[in-house]
Amino acid sequence: MKHLILIASLVLVGCAQPVKPIYQWEGYQPALYQHMKSDGAEPGAQILALEAQLQKNEATGAVTPPGMRAHLAMLYSKTGDDVAARRLLEAERAKFPESTTYVDFLLKAKSSQGAMPPEVAASQSKI
């Protein structure tokens, strides 16, 4: 009888579904690694990769990880596209309310200086 219970337990455990991750990290981690490796020299390719990942996440219903939109906003800011940067920061704040204080700080620094101050950009690149 004990053997039957053990075998039944093993069968049930073997058939269990793997745990689905909360966030879809697929394109974000390689882009972040490339950004750090290149010292942020070429944001264009990273922007394309992250935008493609955002669209893929939206199409499949996957949840975009925290910080991905903020990182993309930093990249857009480096290219001078402050409208896209603001849009992404506001989306980050809407999706992750715990980021409100930091996003508000970035938006305030951006609006008062016209561009993201170097110390803010440097702190974001270390995230």
Could you walk me through the main structural features you see in this protein, from its secondary elements to its overall organization?
The protein has 127 residues and is an all-alpha fold. It has one domain (22-125). It contains seven helices and no strands. The longest helix has 18 residues, at 43-60. The radius of gyration is 20 Å and the shape is elongated. The chain starts with a helix and ends with a helix.
Can you lay out the helices and strands and say which pair or pack?
Layout: H1 2-14, H2 28-37, H3 43-60, H4 68-79, H5 82-95, H6 100-113, H7 118-125
Structure at a glance:
With 127 residues, the chain is an all-alpha fold.
Taken together, the total number of domains comes to 1
- SSE arrangement, N to C: HHHHHHH
Q: Please, how many helices?
A: 7
**Helix/strand class:** mainly alpha
Largest sheet, if any? Answer: none
> What is the alpha-carbon Rg in Å?
20 Å
Please identify the oligomeric state. Answer: single chain
| Average of pLDDT | 81
**What percentage of the residues does DSSP assign to strands (E)?**
under 5%
**Helix residue percentage:** over 70%
| Strand count | 0
Distance between the termini: 55 Å
Q: Which word captures the global form?
A: elongated
Q: Regions with pLDDT < 50 over 5+ consecutive residues?
A: none
Feature tags:
70% helix, 7 helices, mainly alpha
